[in-house]
Design goal:
mainly beta, 5-stranded antiparallel sheet, 9 strands, binds zinc ion, MATH domain-containing protein
């Protein structure tokens, strides 16, 4: 599968006082019976101090489909370490949370290193019963920190506005 940035999945992208936070969400149709599914997405921070690029991959394990592999790979070439975290949360179509968010993180991630983990049970079995054949909404949040410091709030708004314009051109 070719990975690319697809703005349909992006729900939030903001610069914080010391890093960047983005949120994506995607839908898995027929989650309880689907044998394989996969989500790939690129994320670029467009940071003024240390711009970094990441590939997010969430992939079902062979079987059972209630478990998945999560990875956040750094794919830029700038040889400076940076902290990265990824959270995965599950909801039904009524926005009801089905499980506690799972978080994976790592300090001092260098180019071509990754943060990764395995979620053995995305949804507890009792929630799985309620979900039935319905759609699962997976929300993925990424936090990249310690790339810059001390940006004034007005500049934060300006930068996030510019970033949205750049994304819309892709
Ligand atoms: Zn930054």
């Amino acid at each position: 599968m070719v990975s690319k940035f697809d703005s349909r999945y992006l729900k939030l992208d903001k610069e914080t006082s010391e890093g960047h936070y983005a949120q994506f969400s995607f839908v898995v149709q027929h989650f309880s019976t689907l044998p394989n599914w996969q989500f790939n997405q690129l994320y670029h921070t467009n940071c003024r101090s240390l711009p970094t690029s990441w590939e997010i991959e969430i992939k079902s394990e062979e079987k059972p489909s209630n478990s998945c592999l999560v990875s956040l790979s750094r794919i830029d070439y700038i040889n400076r370490p940076i902290d990265a975290h990824i959270w995965v949360s599950c909801f039904d179509i009524h926005q009801r949370r089905l499980s506690f968010p799972k978080v994976f993180g790592k300090k001092a991630v260098r180019p071509y290193e990754k943060v990764q983990g395995n979620i053995e049970e995305m949804i507890p079995s009792e929630e799985m019963r309620y979900l039935g054949k319905g759609e699962l909404i997976v929300e993925v949040s990424v936090s990249i920190s310690l790339c810059h410091k001390g940006i004034m709030p007005s500049a934060v708004n300006l930068i996030s506005g510019m970033k949205k314009m750049e994304f819309s051109k892709l």
